[in-house]
Task: structure prediction
Amino acid sequence: MKILLVGAQGTVGRGVAAELGARHDILAAGRKDAAISLDLSDAASLRAAFERIGRVDAIVSAAGQVGWAPLLDLTPEQWQFSVNHKLMGQVNLALIGQQYLNDGGSITLTSGVLVDHPVRYGAAASLANGAIEAFVRAAAIELPRGLRINAVSPGVLVESMGQLGPFFRGFEPVPAARVALGYARSVEGADTGKVYVVH
Result:
């Protein structure tokens, strides 16, 4: 398969590339240091990238930034940043990308553990993650041409504990290689409208 992987340079993205790249052609995309340059928060950038790439068999998003601050300190700009990147960035990736998917192709988005287990400073992430999961379930019943859409909900990564550990006391971290298996299930399986929880 020809797979567009957005966020390929991130920790999750590198794990997904290692897992799926052993069997498929990975088109690495991201804001920087990627073969295909695109900005998830800019719909015009997404359209331009797809015009350059052409048709694909699968689209995987392992990206999406959020504002991170105490609830009452989150600014309107931080809330909007979270919506533009993590939520609407992925929604637009799916809506624009479906036009370039071959029949029977798949879309895999990323939510996260904070849907079910919120932590201090993570309200914007919880909001975006929950909305992504709701979108996936709704989109699955309307996508045409046998297209499938799922989400992966990763836990905090082993590789990220140095930076995020203080916010995730008591959580069992998950290796990126294990998280990548959720993306493999989505891309190579037959489900649609599912959320693969890997925490």
Notes: The helical segments are 11-21, 43-53, 76-97, 123-140, 161-164, 176-188.
